[in-house]
Specification:
This protein is an alpha/beta fold and about 475 residues long. The protein has a domain at about 370-460: GMP Synthetase, Chain A, domain 3, CATH 3.30.300. It contains 13 helices and 20 strands. It has an 11-stranded mixed beta sheet, sandwiched between helices. Strand 18, helix 13 (about 420-430) and strand 19 form a beta-alpha-beta unit. It starts with 15 loop residues before the first helix and ends in a 12-residue tail after the last strand. Bound molecules: zinc ion (ZN). Zinc ion binds near residues 291 and 298.
Amino acid sequence: MIATTQATPSQFKSDPTAGFVRKVIHPLWAKRTHPAYARYLREFERNQYLHPDELRDLQMRRLRQQLVHAYRYVPFYRLRMAEAGLTPLDIQTHEDLRLLPILTKRDIQDHQDVLIASNVPMSKRERNQTGGSTGSPLQFYVDRERFDSRMASTARHDSWAGWRPGDWTAWLWGSLLDTGENLPATPPWRQKFLYRKLILNTASVTEEGMLQYINLLRRYRPKYMVAYAQGAVLFADFCRDQGIDDIRFESMILSAEMLLPGQRDMLEETFGGKVFNRYGCREVSVIASECEYHTGLHVNADALLVEVEPSPNLPPGMGRVLITDLLNRSMPLIRYEIGDMASLELTQCPCGRSLPLLGPIEGRLTDFLKLPSQKLVSGVALLTFVVAHLREVRQVQFIQRDPTHVTLKVVAGLGYGAHTEQELRQRLRPYLGEQIDLTIATTDHIAAEPSGKYRYVKRWDDNVAPTRVAN
Ligand SMILES: [Zn+2]
């Protein structure tokens, strides 16, 4: 059932410019900068209502194309398939895919050069990187056209929460890679007439910053919030503490971090709108999202093939999430183990979309370091834009044993040395400030939690972290 707590449209400012941006400016901009976007958006909007058999056929067709491409042009996969005694012709069904070995983050770190397709020119691909939810930084390549199709997938999934191009959106985001650094308080003309995002960087946020942000929200009255889940919770707690009750959203699209039990209700009560959970990552962008029925997360199945690999250590139905990107050619990810646990829901969603449903995502929780000033610093932000660029760092974990002492545990990769430590200190200092005593210690191994997941931030006043998304 659709809940009735949604804010009424009258609470939001009428915005005649939104229609103009949606119908004129955004399409012109997209045509120039993302030429394949409109074509993919039309296709994806159609695909979501395909008959399940047609959707499966489409996936299989795209999978075969990707496998043939990988076999011909990507040395890593050619060797992997040869070692397994396979050619792409041996993969005729979804089940056959299980004959192929799993691609781990370690594989990507160790074999990056031979994972790049030889037939995609540099001009048609871009480098990207991630901190990842496991603390293992990764670098990878995305086709320029794939950026367009990723943008189209995101637009489709955002539309389920009611968003359309031209609508103002409040962004509470922890990664400066996505938002750009030092954004001015008043958005410049591109913000006003195109992007229409009010951005609060939750990687490091002060009370003063929050109050400035509230003033901006009062001025622009965005209908939608896009946020790191824990960033949204932090902001909601702040509003409640300050007795601020006039910040309302129609929908809140939450991603990158887990929502803990009770937090969804708290957010919906504080801001009046509905929470739409989103599961995604930098490697493949949006993986799955909730629709207006909130029965699970619909997989972005026309661009990705998501498998849930059962494991004897997990409850029945639950498994490790493996992702195959069906459209990215420059560095294909095939059966990529992203590091999360989830279950596939076999039920049909009442919305009529045939995109399969994922159940709760287990084992995704981003923590914050707590500075002596009480400022919170997002661990995912530190990983994404401080550590992820360093190839000689294989894995990290931040341990904060009291308000002023942080140890960064590092599993060193090739080329690690004193210069790397110096670089890490230099990069972390602006986020941690002068009062934190930072120790960097190398280690052979960072142990997983009993849940099987790695935590990359541990804090002295942490309780045992719950590992389930509240749905
Ligand atoms: Zn649905």
